[in-house]
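Supplementary Methods. Inverse-folding protocol.

Structures were first reduced to a discrete structure-token string of length 175. This string, shown here, constituted the complete conditioning input.
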């Protein structure tokens, strides 16, 4: 707009030092400061801040590792990545796609585990005559947990090495 820093400070009601810090990229305006600048410059706040999506492999690795909550409680394998995905999907490159894959996989895994456990319980309750030894149940459920753990770790390493991740089997709940 051709304003000097002093003029912008006066029009916006902000200090000259604040204007200098913003112009030198020492700080990013937030909240009230952003609103005052937008009004003074007669533009929208989006035009002041460059809302770029950044690429951060560490965030992708953390998103992958956030699934490990399933070890403590099966639904944490969904809840933690879901929160992470919601917070970062518009800010970090590839989080949206990877988050959907992770959530689809974890939801599918929980459904498969639930169906397996429900089938075993129904077999015991209704005495369908299928003999399933305890060690067989533990082996199958333990195998599902081990599979989930391996898939999470392999895909974490793949994402750190800038390779594509593959979560399967997974039903497409989120597209």
């Amino acid at each position: 707009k051709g304003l000097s820093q002093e003029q912008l400070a006066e029009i916006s009601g902000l200090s000259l030092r604040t204007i200098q810090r913003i112009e030198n990229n020492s700080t990013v305006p937030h909240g009230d400061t952003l609103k005052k600048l937008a009004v003074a410059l007669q533009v929208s706040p989006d035009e002041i801040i460059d809302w770029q999506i950044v690429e951060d492999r560490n965030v992708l690795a953390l998103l992958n590792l956030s699934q490990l909550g399933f070890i403590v409680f099966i639904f944490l394998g969904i809840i933690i990545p879901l929160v992470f995905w919601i917070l970062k999907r518009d800010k970090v490159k590839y989080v949206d796609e990877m988050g959907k894959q992770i959530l689809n996989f974890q939801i599918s895994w929980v459904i498969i585990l639930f169906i397996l456990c429900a089938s075993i319980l129904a077999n015991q309750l209704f005495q369908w005559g299928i003999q399933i030894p305890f060690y067989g149940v533990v082996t199958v459920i333990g195998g599902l947990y081990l599979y989930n753990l391996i898939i999470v770790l392999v895909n974490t390493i793949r994402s750190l090495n800038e390779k594509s991740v593959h979560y399967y089997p997974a039903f497409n709940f989120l597209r």
